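Notebook p. 47: complex prediction with adenosine-5'-diphosphate.
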Amino acid sequence: MTSLLRGDRGGWILFALVILLMVYIPIGNLALSADHPLYVSTYTVTLLGKYLCFALLALSLDLVWGYLGILSLGHGAFFALGGYAMGMYLMRQIGDRGVYGNPELPDFMVFLNWDALPWYWYGFDQFWFAMLMVVLVPGVLAFVFGALAFRSRVTGVYLSIMTQALTYALMLAFFRNEMGFGGNNGLTDFKDILGFDIQADSTRIGLFLASGFALLAGYLACRSIVTSRLGRVAVAVRDGEDRVRFLGYSVTKVKLAIFTFSAVLAGIAGALYVPQVGIINPGEFTPVKSIELVVWVALGGRATLYGAVLGAVTVNYLKTEFTGLMPEAWLFALGALFVLVTLFFPRGLAGFRLPWKSAK
Amino acid sequence: MKYLDSLREFMRPDRVFDVVYRPESAHVDIAQRDILYIEDLTVSFDGFRAINNLNLYIEAGELRCLIGPNGAGKTTLLDILTGKTKPDSGSAWFGRNIDLLRLKEPEIANLGIGRKFQKPTVFENHTVLVNLELAMFGGESVWSTWRGRISGEQNDRIGGVLEQIGLAEQRDVLAGSLSHGQKQWLEIGMLLMQSPILLLVDEPVAGMTHQEMDRTAELLRSLAGEHTVVVVEHDMEFVRSIADRVTVLHQGSVLAEGSMEAVQNNPEVVEVYLGE
Ligand SMILES: Nc1ncnc2c1ncn2[C@@H]1O[C@H](COP(=O)(O)OP(=O)(O)O)[C@@H](O)[C@H]1O
Ligand SMILES: [Mg+2]
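Predicted complex, structure tokens below:
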């Protein structure tokens, strides 16, 4: 692990902070009483857990955008698919405790007068199967999409538009009731996960810790790519893919491998996000979500990994604060922030140096 | 991975039966003196003959300069030799056993024919060292690019090439901050990492200072012998300083060939160059 973080000061700071939180938060929430000054409310635990998931998602985008040069405007789709796979497991866990008390069918299916579970819901009552799907569904989709796009050498803006179209198409599909994913309302009213009450403080802490571990593991995995020769080939592809091809590397395979891995990371982030927020609906597929994600990474600073984490947490913290004050102005504020940072800190927050330290 | 590799080796379509196995894709046969045989080569673009019945033989280990006025077909000739352009007729053999016209670009590159393009294209966001490393491992699978490390021996080879191209001190400098001339050398270095037998170098000194030209001349001279080097160049002074033999192309065919002195005094060459 230490060799993967060699020379990565931002990474060390990130690790220190996340590990610190992972020690303090459980104590602050479970062991301290509510009137203790260091007490951490369950609301805060969930909020931080959410930020960790967003950070992992941002990491996955930085890998393909920052290092490989693929500006995906549809990465939210992989996040949402991972989230739906987890949501389907959580739906099946409800059992006969739903409003209609049907032991087999989720409420929305009873409401639609369906009399049997669709085949693609089979197996989701098993946790291991659902986890397999969390990885496989985004991975396979990214692989097939990538194989088609990269082999025919679609690049640049055209590729970005295709990724945007992908998430848009999925959004339209998931909005339809007949698809069998709860339509407009999505999947919600979860009761428990692996037998633990999903509302309980201890479960919340467990999910928070899982998100922390996932972020750190994801960070190390990304580092193992970007510090290897594969990472250097990726940067070379970003800067001049024809030349890389001429050296004899298969640009298609390099892109495919990294893009697929990135989609899997995004899927895992989605799967951890859903039990913490308690809902997954087609709104996660909206193109705006994917574009917001791009803004996080741009603000944080591309091709540093820790910059993506920084961007995701900063923007989402501001969003939480801002939507409390005046929700309708959030997108304008985000836009203004984006313009300011691109103008004054083109390398993002990660590229920001204190004036007296800038002479390196 | 080991099993996968041996399976892959076993499944290679050109190796399944010895009858199908084509030794020509393995090694170039230069038992004869010459390494490149180009005969009656012709290519036209929309009726215009860019290469017209061209005959050219290059000896193994020599340093040959191709000169000629703009549009004489020099770059087009290199395009044909590297598989980028298919000619209308004629033949081009690498050694006595390899028919270049039947092969594709990567196959030709893997046989040991390296080419430097007119415009230098190095990876600007990588250091000089990494540029050479990437060139060295070209053709590697995704898995081994991820897991692979450089061995001490490979490091030494990179060090050797760094010395050769005179960039040892710039080893850890980003390629983007090199001067134009240094970029050209780095690109020649990237070619060398692929251990080519034949180097095709298109206009290496365009845009160089005099000092840089001298260094380039030295570099190219040092490569001849171990490698066969074909240099396409405009700059007469530069050509004079390096060439063993010079071939003058004009309107797609050979106008004159010989030592620089002989060529310069050839009345036909004088007419073509001065008539311009
Ligand atoms: N792909 C092509 N299509 C049409 N014409 C071409 C093509 N490549 C080269 N030519 C023409 O062939 C002639 C020879 O070009 P080239 O080989 O580039 O000359 P040079 O000797 O200056 O390198 C020029 O007149 C050029 O316009
Ligand atoms: Mg030319």
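Notes: The mean pLDDT of chain A is 94. Residues 102 and 341 of chain A are 52 Å apart (CA to CA).
Next step: compare against the earlier run before touching the bench.
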